[in-house]
Amino acid sequence: xxxxxxxxxxxxxxxxxxxxxxxxxxxxxxxxxxxxxxxxxxxxxxxxxxxxxxxxxxxxxxxxxxxxxxxxxxxxxxxxxxxxxxxxxxxxxxxxxxxxxxxxxxxxxxxxxxxxxxxxxxxxxxxx
Length: 128
Fold this sequence. Notes:
Elements: H1 9-12, E1 14-18, E2 28-30, E3 37-39, E4 50-59, E5 66-74, E6 84-85, E7 119-120
Antiparallel strand pairs: 1-4, 2-3, 4-5, 6-7
């Protein structure tokens, strides 16, 4: 992951850390010896679809030096939210002569259309 060009072992051993400012909720963890980044908690695209982590590599010199790198994480969406109606009950009134035998009276027999209701889904793209 990172390397230190110092020639002595005491100066070129590295410790990896995720900057707490870049991960305030502790969603990620890093193995401090090999730099492997893992999830510490589950992610939710509807809360945050991007995360920018600052990774620090700190050497073991008598005056420790630090290198930094940025890791951009994009959270892909899954279908984890159900569609929600703006209200849970609707009422309509229809005159008894609204529908004729050909189904062409009024609005062609339609009593309730998509434009009559408001439905939202927090998922993204094809998961909506």
